Structure formats: C-alpha cells, structure tokens
Amino acid sequence: MARILLTGFAPFNNETTNPSWQAVRQFEGKLSNNGSPIFVAELPCEFHRATEELVSLIERHQCDIVLCVGQAGGRAEISLERVAINMDDARIPDNRGQQPIDRPIEAHGQAAYFSTLPIKAIVHCLRQSGIPAHVSNTAGTYVCNHLFYGLMHYAARNEQIWRAGFIHIPYLPEQAIAHPGAPSMSLDTLVSALDKAIETCLEQGQDLHFADGTLS
Amino acid sequence: MARILLTGFAPFNNETTNPSWQAVRQFEGKLSNNGSPIFVAELPCEFHRATEELVSLIERHQCDIVLCVGQAGGRAEISLERVAINMDDARIPDNRGQQPIDRPIEAHGQAAYFSTLPIKAIVHCLRQSGIPAHVSNTAGTYVCNHLFYGLMHYAARNEQIWRAGFIHIPYLPEQAIAHPGAPSMSLDTLVSALDKAIETCLEQGQDLHFADGTLS
Amino acid sequence: MARILLTGFAPFNNETTNPSWQAVRQFEGKLSNNGSPIFVAELPCEFHRATEELVSLIERHQCDIVLCVGQAGGRAEISLERVAINMDDARIPDNRGQQPIDRPIEAHGQAAYFSTLPIKAIVHCLRQSGIPAHVSNTAGTYVCNHLFYGLMHYAARNEQIWRAGFIHIPYLPEQAIAHPGAPSMSLDTLVSALDKAIETCLEQGQDLHFADGTLS
Amino acid sequence: MARILLTGFAPFNNETTNPSWQAVRQFEGKLSNNGSPIFVAELPCEFHRATEELVSLIERHQCDIVLCVGQAGGRAEISLERVAINMDDARIPDNRGQQPIDRPIEAHGQAAYFSTLPIKAIVHCLRQSGIPAHVSNTAGTYVCNHLFYGLMHYAARNEQIWRAGFIHIPYLPEQAIAHPGAPSMSLDTLVSALDKAIETCLEQGQDLHFADGTLS
C-alpha cells in the first residue's frame, strides 16, 4: 500500500484562485483504487517556504509517492514535467515579496533532477482517456520549478520516496476570461487527469517510451 | 413563444467528430426555459448543400431564432461571430470535394451581413457564467462562413426570422490530442455555453454595448 | 501613368513608433518602376480625422492607386486585407480619446467593401520574393479598419480610383522587445514588401486566384 | 586573444536551408573587434556525429569560446539557452535516421549543465540594439540540446574553454512562407545578433542579473 501526497498552490500573480489547489482539494480524504490513502495540501506560493512545508508533509504522512501540481497559465495541455533545474529567476515577486534572480536553489545541488514519475505512461493514459497531455521540458524558473527541484533534491536523499514529480495544468475557464485568447481546462477534466496520473503511478512498473520530445 | 433552430456540422478535415454537432445534439427534444421548442440538426460540411438544408429546416419548423454552430480548431474561446462575408476561399476541399476559391457566395449579394444575435449580451452572459467568450470579426472563408452568409441572406428576406447568427467553438479535449498545443473545451462547457446563448437570445431586448473589438 | 498614394499611421497604444509610417516614409519622393509618382503621408491614429485627411490627400494629388498601411502587433506576416466592415469597436481610445463601440462607420453605408487591390497576386509576389504574406479576412474594428472602410466607401463613389486597399504589417524588431514572444519584421523587409505591392498593383491586370482562405 | 568557434547546423525536417548556418557562414574568415579569430563550421544534424565534429573542431582550432547556433522554428526571438539536459527524445528521425527516445546522452553524465555564456548580458545587449531576445529554459530534446549537452560535458573537462553555450534563432523569412503564421527574422538581424553575442562574450566579465525567467 502506497501513501500518496498531492499538493496544489495558493493563488498568485493577481489571481483569486489557483486551478492546482481547486483540483487537488477534490481528493481530500479519498483513497486510490487499491486503497492507498491520498493526502492533500495547499502550499504557499513562496520560495523556500513551499519546499519546507512540502518536506514536512512528506515526513508527517510518511508518503512514498509525491505529486506536486501547479498552474501554467497559457498552456493548453496537462504538462508532465520532465526536469527540475537548480535555478530561480523570478519574473515577478512571490506572495511574500521575494524575487530571486539567477540564484541556485541549492548552493551545492546538482544542476537538475529528472522526474521519477512514469511521465510517458501518464501522458499515454491521459490521451487514451481523451485528455490532452504532453511531456514538458521546462517547469519555468519560478516557485513551481523551485518546489519541484526541492522535492527531487529531498527525494534523492530519502529512499522511501518511490515516485516524485510535478504536473503543470492550464487555467480554469473562469480564470481564462481575464486572459483573452488563453486556453483553459474544466475542473472535471483536471480532476480526472490527476486521478489517472495517480492510478498510473500505482500500476505502472517501468515507464513507457514513445517519442514526445520537442525539436527546440 | 419562439421556435429555435440549432445546427451543428458533420466532421471534416480528417476529424471523426465535430464538437458543434456533439454539443447541439444534447438539445434534441428540449425546450428553452420559457417553453420554446428547440429543433436540432447536423448539417453536411458542404458548400451550398449546408445552406439548402438549413433553409429547408427553417421553413419546415417555422423557426424565428436560428443559431448555427461550427468548429474553430485552434481557438480557445466561444466565438460570437459578428459578420458574414460574401466570399468563399476554401483552403481544403469540402466533404463533397468542392473547393471554391475567391468566389462570391451570392453573385449579386451584398458584401456582408452582420449577425442579428445579441452577441455582446451573450459574451457578457457567458463570462458571468465563467465561460471564456469573445466577439470574433471573421468566421473564415470556408463552409462556416458560407452557411452564416447564406443564413443571413435568407433572413434578410424573411421577416419571421427575429434573430440569426453563428457561433464558433473550440475543439473537444479528445480532438485536441491530435493537434499538439491546441486549446480545447469540454462538452459540458460547450453545452452550457449554447444553453446560455439561447436563453440570452430569448430574454435580451437590445444588445449590450461594451468594448470587445480587436486592434487588428 | 498612375498616381500612387501610400499612407502610414502615427504611433498609438503607448508605442513611440509605428512601423507603417517608418516603412512608408522611405518612399517619399520616389517613383515606381514605370515612373509613376508615389505620394506618402502619415495619418493620425484617430477615427474620422484619419479618413478626412486621406480623402483630402487623394484629391489634392489626384491619385488612382491608394494603399493604406497599418501596424498589426502580434502578426508574423504581411497581411493583405480582404474586407473592410462598417463597424467601429475600439478596445482602447484612439489618440484623441475617442472610443466608439459597436457603431457603424457610415450610418447608411453598406455592411462591407472588398479590397480592389490584386491581393492574391501581391501575396504570390511577396512569397516568390521570400517574404511571408497572406490574405487576412479581418482588419479588426479599430482605426485601421475604420480608415480602410472610409477609403473603400469613398473609392466606390469616385471612378478615378482604380485600386484601393489596406495592408497590415508586423511590429519592427525594436518594438517587439516590449512584447515578449511577439513576431517582428525588419524595416528592410517591410519596405521591400511595400515596393513589391506597388509594382504588382501597376503590372497586374486581373487578380490571381489560389486558395489562401481560413477554415475559421 | 580569444579563439572563437561558431557553428551552425545543416538543414533538417524537410527544410532546404538552416538559418543557423546561413548566419554563421557570414563570419567565415572574420576577426572579432579585438582581433580574435572566428572559426566557423556547419555541423550535421545527427546525434553523436554533431558532437564528435564539434569536439574535433575545438581541438583543431584550440578554441576557448564556443558558440553553437541552431534553428528554433516557431520562436520569434533570439533564444539564449540557459541549460542543456542529459536526455534525447527525438520527435522525428535525425538526418541519418536515428531517433533516440528517452535516452541519456551520456550514460553516467550529470543531469544538466548550465551555459557558461553571459546569457543575460547578451540578452541585454541585443535588446539595446533593437533585437528581440530572451533567456530560454529549454533547448528541446533533439539534436540541438544533444550538441549543447555534449559541448558542456566536454567543456567541463577542459579548462581551456572559457565560455560555451547555445543560441536558438527563428526561421528566415523565406522559410516561414512554408509555415503559415510562423515568426521569422531577417538574415541581417541574425548576423547582427551573433556579432553582438560574440562581442559580449569577449567584453563581459561577470554576467548581468535581471529578471528574465518564466513562470512556467
């Protein structure tokens, strides 16, 4: 039996909602198909504190699968993030006013970590279920990538964590109204996507391998 | 009591589904809030024949509100089309192999017709309901614009038609999988949008007027 | 011998330059290949006054070919505009603070006019010359479309005008810096495009006809 | 005195030209402002062989600044790549038919390397010169990222290499014709951008630091 942690973020950048927490909160108190408990949490959109709270939750709940979710305004698909890089470069201040620029997240950390989620298998499963998804090769350089890197850095030192990674999701339709022309995805679709991602994490052994890269 | 005609299109351009008909068919046999009957139909994606079938349906059902719906692959929002132009310029052949290029739809028709739907009121209502929507100033030069022009040309000569126009909708999520990066909208959201468009047509007297144009 | 009027616009929307005037001013005092004089002018980005100044220039210089040029921020290609619609819907105020919304340009004018430039022949010529170009089916609902409609409305009543139309051009590279991700085109390319458009207007009899429409 | 290597790529993906080699070849036999020799080469668009030829050129010419350039079809700006990742995921076969999927470039290599070019200083200089530029956080997962990773892996083991990195550039205008709606940049602008990048590499000590990251 696995123990699963699913996190979303607080709203940021003048939004009043964050689709990641809206979707993640639907799993509160739920079990996976095989009866694994799912713990959920909303993390602050703040450098450092987001990671600290995440690590504290992992330890408190003794989780072995960790799936962090964040908003990617402007993207049209569910993004399975492939890689976290050791770099903060904040285009805008975070919710506490911090704006690190060109600063390593971990002073002596390695340059990057790859996700240990079965990202291709999740993309495959989502597409089979009628949900647009792809592998993304950048999680940006803001709090999402910061948390993702912090998670993988922690996971690399803690053997009990079997699978860890980050998923970016589009705006909700009601958010997209304030961003003319921006794509969105309904809450139902988002929740269904996270549900399938969790099940794939539990069921899939080795990841699948089919082409889903980008030329540039 | 109004009599409402709602049409979608058959799949085209190598698609196996068309979101317009998927959404429109949900209204089969339904009444509007005030009890007005809603007639639905799937039109062929063919120049001329689409318009002929539309006119035949209007006459058979004695409709006074006509709302045609079509797929706009690549758009992220519900598009209330403002204007139909008297021009076919088909980038690809239609489902019968016809490919008119730079040809007027009506040899002696006026250059364009404006929608008689309360397009701004519908955009306002959709946004209030959390659905991204905008006024579009081009319905393209393919079968959608052709049908829209044909509808307005007919309506201009038939006093019983109170309101007529065209709405473009995004891909369904399952379609967008084949179009990497393309926005989509869930069937639930599409149906809700059409429902609200119908209700606004029935309830709204004069259209609203707020800025929703484009600079270019 | 033709007499050609080429106009650009003053900067608007917080820009300090307008690529249309930067490109058009390069033709000051120039002759076409066949010796036809080219008159140039910068028009104000103002509803009504832009058209008034245009008409006054056409009459003063007795022009028979009129080519108006405007900035289409965000577009990547040279846009040969196909149609002007009888509608103002200003997303932002013009340079004089006017912001007409859903207002016909000419109270009793026809719904739209088609360009009388050989737009397909120009697109063909530009592509042959290595310059990305396409036919556009909307010039927006701001001052550009307003001027284009005003021009065509005037031209429809004045037999001496042989050809008239509107061309939208991308940002200059230096402008695009302030619009992250926006396409741009160099001044050299823009000037070359206008030069070829003028020559095509002079040399081309009937327009060409190849598919260059849009599905939606 | 530095010794500079500037490389472009051969055409790929059904193109007949590659803007990277078109721009790079203009520097053949040139010296930088301070008299440093610039060596140029066209590399094959092939996994492994591109890196092998690059390393051979670096050693033959004893270069200490290495700037590799590649085409990023669909981007509008000059992209200073921040990071190379240890992963091949080829969406299409390379020019020799190889299509590695989810395969590390170096079996025991580190997950990623950061560019040692003064990327922010170059972005700043280009913008000051009127050329749209930005820092990119993904060079994709095709031959460009493969070469970039191979370069940085080699450079990490060779003290004589002072600066090394990768720059992605848009399509040329003549290429964009085959990609409707795609941005492009003129050869003059591309050459000017590379010239300024080289000069910044030579003149700049520490890199500049201003926000140029992405939220996602």
UniProtKB/TrEMBL annotation, chains A, B, C, D:
User: What's this protein's function?
Assistant: Removes 5-oxoproline from various penultimate amino acid residues except L-proline.
Q: What one GO molecular function would you report for this record?
A: pyroglutamyl-peptidase activity
Check the record and name the CDD domains matching this protein.
Peptidase_C15
Is this entry keyworded Protease?
yes
Q: Which domain of life is it from?
A: Bacteria
Question: Gene name on record?
Answer: pcp
At the top of the EC hierarchy, this enzyme's class is: hydrolase
| InterPro entries found in the cross-reference section | Peptidase_C15, Peptidase_C15-like, Peptidase_C15-like_sf, PGP-I_bact-type, PGPEP1_Cys_AS, PGPEP1_Glu_AS
Under catalytic activity, the entry for this protein gives: Release of an N-terminal pyroglutamyl group from a polypeptide, the second amino acid generally not being Pro
Q: How does it assemble?
A: Homotetramer.
Task: List UniProt keywords, sorted A-Z.
Answer: Cytoplasm, Hydrolase, Protease, Thiol protease
EC no. given is: 3.4.19.3
What name does the UniProt record give this protein? Pyrrolidone-carboxylate peptidase
| Regions crossing the membrane | none
Annotated active site: E81, C144, H168
Q: Tell me what organism the protein belongs to.
A: Undibacterium cyanobacteriorum
Its primary localisation, in coarse terms, equals cytoplasm
Q: Which family does it belong to?
A: Belongs to the peptidase C15 family.
- Entry's localization field: Cytoplasm
Sorted alphabetically, which Pfam families does this protein's record hold? Answer: Peptidase_C15
